[in-house]
What does this fold into?
Amino acid sequence: MRLSCITGNLQLEQKADVLSRAFADYIKKSYLGYTQFMIAVDFAVGPSYSVVIAGDSEAEDTKKMFEKINSEYIPNIVLIYRPTDSYPPKIDGFSSFIEWFDKVNNKATSFVCINKTCKPPTNDPIKTIEYLSSNWNK
It folds into this structure.
């Protein structure tokens, strides 16, 4: 499930679904023995979050964006870093769908997507957390 989210490869999500169905009877009988499957089910049911941070590697604003996100407990998050100080970033070879995610106003920018629906990009770490927390209490 997470690899599908990182790469944008929907076939990986379909394979995860096939695996969960194939093991469903075993999981029902002994769910404690299949904790990683249960985590994948939780991720699939959602809400799940994808955050792409685009910014320069050593820039203070990029570091602050990561610090703010890492200071929160956010289950079901996939965090992808797209360094903007080298072109093309190597991550583009794995996650081609993020190749258009770039800094806005020449500042580190986060792109937050919840259940594959994206919010407007932001340069504000606090706004990033607000986007992410909008579904926590639902």
